[in-house]
User: Which sequence fits this backbone?
């Protein structure tokens, strides 16, 4: 169960950072999706991955989406980029050279997001 708690933290952090980077969605929407995803992961463990991966599921909206990855930077669920699942993205950088997955992981390790 500890494994799933760790993934839940990553979900929370990944969702909020990704959502804010995309289109500045309402914070309430971001927090609600994070909480729902974390609850699903806590309740269903690995079975939650399929639900998070659904493009038309409850974890995707016009403004934001949930991604799930572990502390090593391996993507476990990504509803919009299925080709990234199973890949380590820790070294990925954005157009400004920022290692955004590294930042996500560091933030999640602090227990916030």
Assistant:
């Amino acid at each position: 169960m500890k494994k799933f708690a760790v993934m839940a933290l990553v979900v929370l952090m990944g969702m909020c950072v990704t959502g804010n980077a995309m289109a500045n969605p309402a914070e309430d929407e971001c927090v609600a999706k994070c909480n729902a995803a974390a609850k699903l992961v806590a309740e269903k463990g690995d079975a939650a991955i399929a639900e998070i991966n659904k493009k038309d599921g409850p974890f995707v909206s016009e403004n934001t989406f949930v991604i799930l990855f572990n502390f090593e930077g391996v993507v476990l669920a990504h509803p919009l980029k299925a080709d990234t699942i199973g890949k380590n993205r820790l070294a990925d950088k954005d157009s400004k050279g920022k290692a955004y997955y590294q930042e996500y992981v560091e933030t999640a390790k602090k227990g916030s997001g």
